[in-house]
Model the fold of this input.
Amino acid sequence: MEMTLRWYGSGFDTVTLKQIRQIPGVTGVITTLYDTKPGEVWSRERIRALKEEVEASGLHIAGIESVNVHEAIKAGASEREAYIANYMETLENLGKEGIRLVCYNFMPVFDWTRTELARMRPDGSSVLAYTQEAVDHLDPEKMFASISCDMNGSIMPGWEPERMEHVKEQFAMYRNVDEEKLFENLRYFLEKIMPVCDRYQINMAIHPDDPAWSVFGLPRIITNKKNILRLMQMVDNPHNGVTFCSGSYGTNLDNDLPDMIRSLKGRIHFAHVRNLKFHSPTNFEEAAHLSSDGTFDMYEIMKAFYETGYDGPIRPDHGRMIWDEIAMPGYGLYDRALGAAYLNGLWEAIEKNAKRRQG
Ligand SMILES: [Mn+2]
Done:
């Protein structure tokens, strides 16, 4: 495994490459061209410039999060062919620059959903939180407004203003799309792009839906073990793989995270590891990474990665806002650095124990 940190790029991120380089054990970043829109082709020149900037700091690009999938592809609209062709061109350009990992999601209209971006915890830190009750009382357009008020001046991934302007049209696109149809559209997309992935050895890694159930009546499919295994079999190519995000699959307490990691052996190409604290099954907040601060057993999660021979990038996921840092909610430096150090510590202990047992 390689420990990495997500970085949004100069001009977008409050965290610098120099700071990331100083987190012990972090050798790579997971980054993106943050000012590109879904459906746009990423030019080779811009990818190379990003790569050179990262490498000049002593780090490297361990993967892209995300190359976003255009809504027409997800909804299966007639314009999808052109957008799939653009996506393939972007993959080709990434491949030519030696980038081998692309994270994406297939959530209709909304990306991840939280109902609070700064819930106060008893220790004075603030975290992202979710209650189903709040979503049930909100209309989708108000959701955009309340999220955008609270971004600390930043634009959060998946909540870009351009995207917000077209909520109603986007909902209309999914009128006839149920879960089966969404699976079919995803299969169609993956089958089209697999030849490019094969040529350049690019691992596609689908991020789970967050929360792992339907919101606002929209279909969601990347939510549990049964569905993700179905997707792996549907397009049975090792380049069709998974971003295992413990905090997203973990929103549904029925998901047994270590068991899922073991079941997906060989198909996990990227991992987001974080903890959640549940107050009820539909009311949770993002805790510190430490097991005792939340609901998940982080040792068992890391052990499952170790025991399945996982060798891809891991990144700590959303952190708490601590020590008066002002940053994009979930993406400050301090708590994610603590998360990286903690996860590295767990890994070292698991690895040394395993090697000693082997004698
Ligand atoms: Mn995630």
Remarks:
- The first strand starts at residue 2 and ends at 6.
- Residues 207, 245, 247-248, 272, 317 surround manganese (II) ion (CB under 6 Å).
